[in-house]
Amino acid sequence: MKKLAHSRSFAGREFGHDAVEDSKKEVAISTQQGTIDKKVSPFLFEGDIFLSRRQAVDILKALSKDKTKRLRRSFVSDKTAMWKTLPIKYRFHESIDFYTISQIIAAIRFWEDSTCITFENVSDAPDGDYIEFFSGQG
């Protein structure tokens, strides 16, 4: 059923190889807020992520391991899904209020203080990959 939903929503794009396919071509990020098709949403991880088969299996394995043992900590298990350049650029959509922006900035500072990841706030949509925080689904 998941494969059927994927093929209907992604027009024949091969199932389970998203990261490999995405790394082969330029990716354009829209500045408009998108919506999620209600038929696909039950199959999304955390509401907006379509996992590859390997990612789903890795998550299930981690959940099924003995809960008394500490799991190996890893930011990402799929090396092709990692950001290629740092700092990671991000921007705020006009739909976000000041309080939410301050909370996001506090979280970003925490990540920078706790990890080797760095972020850069940009006012306009940059070329290449970036994160856009917006109010709404996803």
Summarize the structure.
By secondary structure, the chain is of the alpha/beta class. 32% of the residues lie in helices and 8% in strands. The radius of gyration is 17 Å and the shape is globular.
Structure description:
InterPro entries: MetalloPept_cat_dom_sf, Peptidase_M12A. This is Peptidase M12A domain-containing protein. One of its GO terms (molecular function) is metalloendopeptidase activity. With about 140 residues, the protein is of the alpha/beta class. It folds into 2 domains: about 1-75, no CATH class; about 85-138. The protein is built from 4 helices and 3 strands, in the order H-H-H-E-H-E-E. It has helices spanning about 1-10, 20-25, 55-65, 100-115; strands spanning about 90, 120, 130-135. The protein has a 3-stranded parallel beta sheet with strand order 2-1-3, covered by helices on one side. The protein is globular, with a radius of gyration of 17 Å. The two termini are about 20 Å apart.
